[in-house]
Amino acid sequence: MRYVQMNRCRISYWRLWLVTVCLVTTPVSAETLQQAWDTALAVDHGLKAVQENTAAAAEQVQAAEAARLPSLGAHVRDVQNRYDQAMLAQNDLLAAQVELADAQQEAIQAANRLDIARAGYNRLLGRPLAQNVSLQELSPVPVSDSLEVLEASGLEQRSELASFAQQIQALHRQAEGIRAEMGPQIALNGGYDLQENQFQAHEGVWSATLGLQWKVFDGGFIRHKAGATTRQAIALQQQREDMASEIRLEVRQAWLDIQETRKRIVVTKNAIAQAEENLTVNLDRYENGLSTNTEVLDAETLRTGSQNNHANAIYDAMLASLQLKRSVGEL
To answer: For residues 164-183, b (16+ Cβ closer than 10 Å) or e, as one string?
Structure first.
């Protein structure tokens, strides 16, 4: 009976290994982010950061399957062998199998989310939903400009501020036109009239008319009307200043997020190395009877968590970079 269980465990392990290879293997020619944007802009202007979401889902699959399952599957096999040799209690084997089952469930969920993300990505690019997606791996781009330069770029390039400026200018021109009605209005008309009359000495007659109109008193109608238009322009100017303040805040927040994520990338990368060493030590201690199965599983959980944290830091950095480009008017 134990031999059958061991074979089933080994068969499940190799099946998982094959699924992992199929999911993480990508073609040699990978699609770049710029190529995806160029295609999407031609068919759907709603694409912003879907490429990052798709890549993040792929990273979750890699973290759940390529990293966790092979190692945890190997640990289950080792525990099974030690159990077959009557070197440990059955509860160790059961605990390892439960952890493996949980990992398999997470892998299935991650694969489903990845398929959904790929379908949504293909829809935005006008492709068949089931078309294969191969994305070039992203890497954070360093920001060389200072915060002050970025804020100035945002104030200069954001279309919202330009729209406010045009509306304000139009209202001021309109107010000037209304005030002009208070001054004298001069009208000059001219023309040439030809009448075919043999009894008339000159059949063609030139004429000119000069008119003058000046509203000396209108009860303040024009003045109040022009004042209302001017106040509308002032109100828009206040809204523009508020928008400028929001843009400065957006730029600063995105810039600070980039600084934060860069630090997280370094810290989580070091944490992965430490978690790997911790797992190696616990596996060695377990094989020599100096550690429990629970400690090994906890070490594996820490390693997986550190890998997920590192992946999240990378994609948070990419998202912050996109948000910064949006805040300065480049997207």
So the answer is: beebbeebbebbeebbeeee
Give Cα separations from 269 to 61, 261, 299, 307, 314 (angstroms).
Answer: 19, 12, 16, 8, 10
**Local mean pLDDT, 10-residue blocks, the chain (331 residues):** 37 38 48 76 56 55 50 60 53 73 87 92 91 84 88 91 90 85 75 73 75 70 83 91 93 94 94 93 86 84 92 92 91 82
Q: What is the pTM of this model?
A: 0.60
Candidates 329, 306, 189; CA nearest to 247 is 329
Contacts of 178 (CB under 8 A, 6+ apart): 222, 225, 226, 229
Token pair of 151, please? 């804020």
Nearest to 50 by CA among 328, 318, 327: 318
Tokens coding 122: 């293909």
Q: Which residue has the tokens 């928008």?
A: 243
